[in-house]
Amino acid sequence: MKIKRIGILTGGGDCPGLNAVIRAVVKTALRRFKIEVVGIADGYAGLVEGVMRPLQDSDVSGILHRGGTILGTSNRANPFQYAVIGEDGKMMIQDRSGEALEQMRKFGLDALVAIGGDGTLSIAKKMADLGVPVIGVPKTIDNDLDATDVTFGFDSALAVATEGVDRLHSTAESHHRAMILEVMGRYAGWIALRAGIAGGGDVILIPEIPYEIEKVCNEVKRRIHLGKRFSIVVVAEGAKPKDGEITVQRTVEGSTDPIRLGGVGQVVAGRIEKEVGIESRVVVLGHLQRGGTPTPFDRWLGTRFGVAAVELLAEERFTRMVCLRGQNIESVELEKAVSKLRRVEPQSEEVRTARSVGTCFGDE
Ligand code: F6P
Fold first, then answer.
1. Which one of 171, 200, 206, 275 is most buried, counting C-beta atoms within 10 A?
2. In the CATH scheme, what is the code of domain 157-290+345-356?
3. What is the whole-number distance in angstroms between the Cα of residue 285 and the centre of ligand 1?
């Protein structure tokens, strides 16, 4: 089967570097392989509803440094469980995958490039099971996909989070406060761990190492006794106490990932203030981590991923996801790509490194 026309979509939460992938896919497809590219709006929603348009070189010119995605995205639209509002105003879930296939026929799409995290790529795998030639491209600031050493978007989020730690240091020191920085990452602690190490956080709390609040408070007290009258705590949104639960901020009906985490920073701050008697403040970095200009690394990785995705399509090596292994761009079966989350290993060299320089994880 000679691929002549492909669709490209971005699904799930946005992240810096998406436009670098889109640009690389369009330029490579048009220049090297004479393959036409159709941009699908708002993730799988555009596929089901048939909202798409051909992309030319001029459409992707000048977008490399731009955050977000020129295509739009959705973290709710799933063709297999499509949320629609019924006449009674209530939400209903329908299987609209047949319509997605029909739209692909209508727009003459021979294959799909799906750029997303585990939710988007799991749906891509289901599309492949229906016979659609698919290539996945891994994105997420959380860096939680096991099949790639790193996802693009992570480096940009890390830069923002590290700057956050840096900026909190001076105000924490001036006011003799505990400053708690809550960062994203879902069920993985990569952003908190790396920003904590890079920024010199005194305490790092991550989902993979359940904490005891008494131990966190002891560390803050220990520092006060040493004359360090401030502390910086970097807490991942998915961090949880040893005998407790993660803090859920809200649920999102109809989403492939209905649970939104958030609020643990406030919990930790409240306890530190009460137990230690030091004034504590919380900063929730939130979507600032996902917005804005991608770092050079994320543009570089996104570009390499985009080129590799088109090469796989041209070679007719379908149902695969591009990935980074060491310094090399490789690919892995889509099935394997979405089957395992990549989380921080508590015994890893990285965690030991942090402990070596005196970082407290609230467990010892
Ligand atoms: O997966 C990326 C991510 O930013 C997570 O770190 C965070 O938990 C979630 O998405 C936030 O989602 P939303 O944009 O729907 O609030």
1. 206
2. 3.40.50.460
3. 12
